Amino acid sequence: MNLGHFREIHSIELSPEWYEFNVRQFANNSDVEIHHGNSKTVLPQLLMAIDEPVIAYLDAHYSGGSTAYGEEETPLLEELEALRTRRTNDVVVVDDIRLLGVAGEMGTAGDEIYPAANFDWTDVTEQAVRSRIRVGSVVVQNRGQVFSSGPEDQLLIFPGGTGRSIALAIYGWIGLVAVRGVRDGRVLAGRFLRRRKASH
């Protein structure tokens, strides 16, 4: 499987079932490493070993069925804290922002992978998310699929500064779109931390 613009792809999966599935699925891809554990602890450890910009795709949360419920329903706030302290110009994609600050039901009745399940993100609000984003970052919502072909309920966080920084961030995001089809096809149920391929 050609994974496009990325030299390395890391995915963190809490569910033992989905971890094993993803290990098997990407057994022939030496540039993909699947990590087993809670992303709120694994992600900071992983980030300490990477001293260049990354594209981080944050989608860790309980989704019913065989997905895993960690110490909390979503470790999003802890993940953002880990990314905020880095000194590199990372691009961060926060998925499922429709869930921020609300409780309700997600999934589809009868779906084997994402069945109907209750969720409660009332403590994980947009204000809480924004308070954990590095000052000076450019934050946009993917309305109208302007930035990608991905869902409109994503928050995209680009490094602040010059227009060149934004252009580089969007270039990295284009690479992310190339890999999104893999996740949309439910090949990866985990969370992604992706590095853009170095330019030569």
Structure overview:
This protein is 28% helix and 22% strand. It is α+β, with helices and mostly antiparallel strands and 200 residues long. The protein contains 5 helices and 9 strands; from the N terminus they run βαβαβαβββαββαβ. Mean pLDDT is 78; it is low at 162-200. α2 runs parallel beside α3. It has a 7-stranded mixed β-sheet, sandwiched between helices. Strands 5-6 form a two-stranded antiparallel sheet. The longest helix has 22 residues, at 163-184.
What keywords describe this structure?
single chain, 200 residues, alpha+beta, seven-stranded mixed sheet, two-stranded antiparallel ribbon
Describe the structure in brief.
The chain is an alpha+beta fold and 200 residues long.
Topology:
Layout: E1 6-13, H1 16-25, E2 32-36, H2 39-48, E3 55-58, H3 76-84, E4 91-94, E5 103-106, E6 117-120, H4 126-130, E7 138-141, E8 155-158, H5 163-184, E9 191-196
Helix pairs in contact: 2-3
Rough outline = globular
Q: Roughly what is the average pLDDT, rounded to an integer?
A: 78
H/E series: EHEHEHEEEHEEHE
Spatial strand arrangement across the major sheet: 2-1-9-3-4-8-7
Q: In angstroms, what separates the terminal alpha carbons?
A: 23 Å
